[in-house]
Specification:
By secondary structure, the chain is an all-alpha fold. The chain has one domain (3-110). 64% of the residues lie in helices and 0% in strands. The chain is built from 5 helices and no strands. It is globular and about 35 Å long. The mean pLDDT is 85. GO terms for molecular function: RNA binding. InterPro entries: CWC22_splicing_factor. One of its GO terms (cellular component) is nucleolus.
């Protein structure tokens, strides 16, 4: 998929999740811990998705999005995968000033 389409799809999914039309639990099908799955295009897609969520929506909306997956024990793998992905691919860039990282509230919810 070309980069423009990949970015548009990521922003579209972020908007669906941010407007509560789509649950973030649909990402449970993605193995965020498998390096073979996380190609550079896949990483770019999810970075755009999460950075769009974290910059376009309020902390209260982000809190509601992530508390949905915090309440279900069967979504523990998703929580762990999201936590790992954000630590590896989003937070390290926030330290260099390249991109914004997730709000502190999202990190707290994911790590529960």
């Amino acid at each position: 998929m070309e980069l423009r389409r990949l970015a548009n799809l990521a922003r579209f999914i972020a908007d669906l999740i941010g407007s509560f039309s789509l649950s973030i639990s649909v990402l449970k099908a993605v193995d965020f811990t498998d390096c073979a799955v996380l190609t550079s295009k896949v990483v770019m897609h999810f970075r755009i998705l999460f950075e769009n969520l974290f910059t376009e929506y309020s902390d209260a909306v982000i809190w509601n999005i992530f508390t949905h997956i915090a309440n279900y024990p069967e979504l523990e793998n998703l929580r762990n995968g999201l936590d790992l992905f954000m630590q590896q691919h989003i937070n390290k860039n926030a330290l260099t000033g390249e991109q914004l990282g997730p709000p502190e509230s999202a990190s707290l919810i994911i790590s529960k």
